[in-house]
Design a protein that fits this description.
By secondary structure, this protein is of the alpha/beta class. It has six helices and seven strands.
Amino acid sequence: SSLLATRLQMVMMPGLCLLMSSSFICFFRALQKRSFIRAAATQFVVVSSLWAIALGWAYGSALASEPVQDVASQWLVDHLVPGDTIGIIGRPFIEDSPAVVHQDFFYKNTDFWKPRFKVKLIGYDASTLQRELPDYFVVSSKDGFGEKFSAVRAYPESRRLFLRNFIKHYALAAFFEKKPKLFGYHLKTEKNSDWNIPFPKIFVFKRK
C-alpha cells in the first residue's frame, strides 16, 4: 500500500515539474511585455493549479495507503492474547470495524473459522457492561465516539449511565485514524465529511 502511494507520487512528479516550469516561463514573458494583468492572472492560475494538484496528491496517497480498519485489526492480533474478550457497541461491519472483530463475531459458529477472540455485543447497556466487563472494547466514530466523549452530555440517561461505568473501567489503549497529509502536515477533515465514511476513527480501550 505504501509502495502504491510512492508510485503515485512518482507518476505525478514529472507533470508537476512541467507545469511549474512552463508557468514561470509564461510569467516572465508577461513581465517582459509589461503585461502585469496577464502576469497576475498567470500566477493565479499557477497557484490554483498547484494547490489542486497538491491536494489531489495528498488524498491520492492516503487512499492508496493501508486502510485504518486493517491497521487496527493487526494491532489487536499483535497485542491481545487469543481468547481475550472484546466488547462492541453495535454489530461490526467491515466498513467501520477491524477485520478480526468482524470475522470473529459473524463466523464464530461456523466450521471454517476458528475465532481468535470472544467478541461480545454490549450495546449501551450499563448492566450488560457491568456483568461482562470484556478485556478490551473496540468502538469507532460511527458508534458516536469522538476524540473526547462525556458522560455528562450523553443522551438519553441510559447512555450517560453506560458511559459513567465505561470511563470507570476502561482506558484508551490505541487510536487509529487516517488523514491526508501534505508536506508533513495532516489536513483537517470535517466531522461529517464523506472522508469519514470509508475511514472512520477506531478506538481500542483496555480494562483497567
